[in-house]
């Protein structure tokens, strides 16, 4: 990767993998973004990438399998 310490790129790459249906790669990219944490001040970054936004993304939709949950586990309102 051209900028290996730019957290936002890992988060965006996860979005791309998810759109392509590759949940495993999406999870791996989000986990890397979480490991890196917030981006360095040398990069323009969205607040929450590498922290709460990435974690929220990891815990939603088809990536919930990482936590052993399925759509049947969700409350029906």
TrEMBL record:
Against InterPro entries, the record matches this protein to: TPR-like_helical_dom_sf (IPR011990)
Q: What is this protein called?
A: Tetratricopeptide repeat protein
